[in-house]
Amino acid sequence: MASKLLRAVVLGPPGSGKGTVCERIARSFGLQHLSSGQFLRESLGGGDGECPRGRPVGGSDGTGSCVTDGFGSILAAFLPLIPAPFLCGACTGFPRTLGQAKALDRICELDLVISLNIPFETLKDRLSARWVHPGSGRVYNMDFNPPHVQGIDDLTGEPLVQREDDRPEAVAARLRKYKDAAKPVIELYKSRGILHSFSGTETNKIWPYVYTLLSSKIPPVLSDEEN
């Protein structure tokens, strides 16, 4: 477990690779990956009720839609019940609106915000090729992260589905909605001097820059090459 605590969020549009980046952060810096979708399922009684120990790195909400501002109220009520290390982690996919950002402000002060900027055409292609396991929110991409058996979840053997909003005709509207909602959030963190933006079309090319940034804030437990 890394010795220095860090409060951070990872922002980015649907399909930007937030989950992949957070998994790598978890491995490289001794953090534990906790998706906001998993958090919601456990908070609302849909999970096993057990909270993993460690500092969380969050993921998307697992549904493809933005979690509502009411999620901030759930988070505020839940966090005091979690061991202190949980308060000092990185959460991705949240906050997605200014209301959520203000709710988070009432809980903790962020050290840094990572924003992933991916071109529209790249996002459209990624989302259109994405399929998910409904029960867990596990995501596959038919181009670069396909399941072992087409249409089947690797762990459960259950069928995969394509979300309605991942279908090509819905992607453009979804990205516009994210951009409109996220703009004031990004401006807020930029004005505080804690926003760090990374642009590119491939997560593997963005990741070394994210790793270098975080290494200046918290000691890594794995080198970039080991990840």
TrEMBL record:
SUPFAM superfamilies: P-loop containing nucleoside triphosphate hydrolases
Domain Adenylate kinase active site lid: from-to ranges: 130-165
Entry keyword Membrane: no
Coiled coil region boundaries: none
One Pfam family, short name: ADK_lid
Alphabetical UniProt keywords: Kinase, Nucleotide-binding, Transferase
GO function terms (MF aspect): AMP kinase activity; ATP binding
UniProt superkingdom: Eukaryota
UniProt record similarity statement: Belongs to the adenylate kinase family.
HAMAP family, per database record: Adenylate_kinase_Adk
UniProt-recorded name of the protein: KAD4 kinase
Annotated source species: Onychorhynchus coronatus
Lineage: Eukaryota, Metazoa, Chordata, Craniata, Vertebrata
Gene: Ak4
